[in-house]
Amino acid sequence: MKRKSKPYLYLFFYCALFVLIACDKPQLIDIEGSQPYSKLIDTDGVEYVTVKIGTQTWMAENLRTTKYNDGKPIPMVTGAGTWANLKTPAYCWYNNDSVNNKTRYGAIYNWYAISSGKLAPKGWRIPSDSDWSVLENYLKANACNYNLSKTSNDYAKSLSSKILWSGSSVVGAVGNTDYPTFRNKTGFNALPGGYRIEDGTFSNEGNIGYWWTATINPKTISKAWYRYIYYDETGVGRNNYLKARGYSIRCVKN
Predict the structure, then answer these.
(1) Residue 245 lies in a domain
(2) Residue 155: alpha-carbon gap to chain centroid
(3) Is residue 66 assigned to a domain?
(4) Is 240 among the domain residues?
(5) How far is Cα 116 from Cα 219, in angstroms, rounded to an integer?
(6) Domain limits at 149?
(7) Model's pTM, two decimal places?
(8) Can you give the chain as a three-state secondary structure string?
(9) What's the structural domain count of the chain?
(10) In a domain, 30, yes or no
(11) What is d(CA 208, CA 181) in angstroms, rounded to the nearest whole number?
């Protein structure tokens, strides 16, 4: 007897295949798969993707506003000598190349731009050192370390974009394509935008990303805390350095 076909089985198969293909692409969802990305618009009218991670909502792109949230312009400084002598707010694009680096990496700001208190879009803030710690503790507790440790700092891969990082052979490092399910697991999409040294020169695009916090070092007020991710390492670094340096910025929702 000729077996009847079962159309619903074919329908189920193709639906499942579609879901698998879709999930292989970068998804606009948070770490738990329950919260879609939302959008944020800054004073320039630039639209950003944001992502919810735990109790926090973060930008999934680096800030690139050229205006404070009151509409006043932030000074753009291209000259190395001028940048080196600043103790006032400034921003620039990596290598002074807005065509290739504005959308990709966002702007580079010295810490004085943060001290204005008006750099983040309204309803958002420059994250404090403690805000970053909340994120890091969440990542450790929620299976974002590539080695599944709940105590170590090995979650850089889960925060980092799958592209643009220099290659690495270090197990679990950001620049290594191993542990594919952990690559940008959170959707935070950290990129290696390099930085501007306090003498005004640019350095390390492709190798490292730095992000300012809003927190100064109370023991050395000329310095502020930051986080960094390096292509050849597995963890997120924390340190403090001179406010004259130019780093990227991510904002967190109030």
Answers:
(1) yes
(2) 13
(3) yes
(4) yes
(5) 21
(6) 51-253
(7) 0.85
(8) CCCCCCHHHHHHHHHHHHHHHHHCCCCCECCCCCCECEEEECCCCCEEEEEEECCEEEECCCCCCCECCCCCECCECCCHHHHHCCCCCCEECHHHCHHHHHHHHCCEEEHHHHHCCCCCCCCEECCCHHHHHHHHHHHHHCCCCCCCCCCCCCCHHHHECCCCCCCCCCCCCCCCCCCHHHCCCCCCCECCCEEECCCCCEECCCCEEEEEEEEEECCEEEEEEEEEEECCCCCEEEEEEECCCEEECCCEEC
(9) 1
(10) no
(11) 22
Check: CB of residue 61 under 8 Å from CB of residue 37. Answer: no
Q: What is the chain's pLDDT, residue by residue, as a tens digit (254 residues)?
A: 444 445 444 444 444 433 332 333 333 333 334 445 668 899 999 999 999 999 999 999 999 999 999 999 999 999 999 999 899 999 999 999 999 999 999 999 999 999 999 999 999 999 999 999 999 999 999 999 999 999 999 999 999 999 999 999 999 999 999 999 999 999 999 999 999 999 999 999 999 999 999 999 999 999 999 999 999 999 999 999 999 999 999 999 99
